[in-house]
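As agreed, record minuted below.
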Amino acid sequence: MKEQLETIRKKAEQDLLRAADKKALEDLRIRYLGKKGELTAILKQMGSLSAEERPVIGQLANQIRAHIEEELTARAAEIREAETERRLKKEKIDVTLPGKRRELGHKHPLNIELDEIKEIFIGLGFDIVSGPEVEYDYYNFEALNLPKDHPARDTQDTFYITDNILLRTQTSPVQVRTMEKQKPPIRIISPGRVYRSDAVDATHSPLFHQIEGLVVDKGITFANLKGTLEVIIKRLYGEDSVVRFRPHHFPFTEPSAEVDIQCFNCHGEGCRLCKGEGWIELLGCGMVHPKVLSNCNIDPEVYSGFAFGMGLERLVMRKYNIDDMRLFFENDVRFLKQF
């Protein structure tokens, strides 16, 4: 039995030297020291020994168990050290190498133009306000003097969520909310996303951006509106910008007009972008309808005002000679890097 125990010790030492990882060590521990291990199997035979031999064999067996456990611990430490060394060699960093330059992002052309427009209006004394994109029918239509049977309320043009809730088709509801909370004088712009059920083409999208403005005070006339818009357009596109005002009709303004700018692509001759007209519609405007003022508890006999709304995409297309608004939403880095 002594010879068997010594054989187990030597064999365990040899196996431990060959163990390459933690799993191999655990397998050896179970093989030699486990409940069904080789050392346990020898100890189960001690019942056949004499009373004088049992203490001797028992002491030797305990010494061998302790020796194997020490060897397991020592080998485990060696394996951990070797693994750490391999990982350090694999993960080492040469601090003398030059760093990798991170490419900076590019500001979207819509944001570039919007920031410039905000600065212009702030310089003219306007405040910038915002409102919800999911809007009540009242603020989007009724308060703006659009009756129930108006074509703009057709579900073909508007994304309705319920009969009374919709995705706003304009940022004009922000003007109504402002007039409800604030008494004149009022001088604001309200930029934001709007939604309409339009087919996607070079100049239309179901999601686009508007910038609407509102001025309400005593003695405001159409001449103030015309002068303000001409200043803004020339500030944006240069003193040589060609602008025209056309009579139009909007339920929430009276009188109303549309403002066109000469097509930058064909300079008035007619092309695909301007649909052969030579002009691009830039914005709608007019004097705030007295009924709209009344709906917001502002006396139209005392106060008057003007309002306007412009599409941000069209402004950017005019400024940077872009002939397809779909480029704004495709996230093509080659396009965005130009700005």
Summary: The chain has two domains: 2-91, 109-336. The mean pLDDT is 86. The chain is about 40% helix and 20% strand. The longest helix spans residues 53-91.
